[in-house]
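Quick bug: phosphoserine phosphatase output formatted oddly.
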Amino acid sequence: MSERVSGARASGLLAAKGPGLLVMDVDSTLIEQEVIELIAEHAGSRAQVAEITGRAMRGELDFEASLRERVATLAGLPVEVLDEVVAQTRLTRGAVELIEELHASGCRVGIVSGGFEEVAAPLAARLGIDHVAANRLEVADGRLTGRVEGRVVDREVKTRLLRQWARADGVEMERTVAVGDGANDLGMIAAAGLGIAFDAKPVVVRQAPAAVHVRDLRAVLELL
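Here's what came back:
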């Protein structure tokens, strides 16, 4: 086992037929940043939001409650700020290569984010990702209200979407892969045929069957 990865590798049906669906987190996994912190920079609340985000990702806070608390600090920002944040996002090294190789092998790719659709959807379109789900910020009169529209994409929702997309794509759960870095990814990591902690918080590394220890998504392929 290399220093780049540790833990289980693909086995059984996953090893025999290859992955049929890979679902990954967005913030600090597909991209380098936490989107809510980029938005909060414009509201002057980045330090406060970063502290809450860190605690939530370590599993110290209820995710939904912490998200609503962080989003409340964004109230009043003009919606145009979101376009600036989209331009600021940086893909994690190896993201394009991982997605291209998966697609070339016939594997579908999905992203699930505790962040926001306004950023995740353009990323999905740019990368040719097959499934996308994220939270949506409420807007009124061209400004953020400080609230989230509809359901919150938390640990349970991420797990449910992994199963839902696998059924829709006709993929056995044994051939699914889940990749994430935070405590809210642990449900889908446990449910997948292979769950991978990506440069993750200690609580995730301890519980995930496999882990990538470098910020390079191509290392995921070493486990497949």
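Actually, after a second look the formatting is fine. The CA atoms of residues 31 and 129 lie 14 Å apart. Closing.
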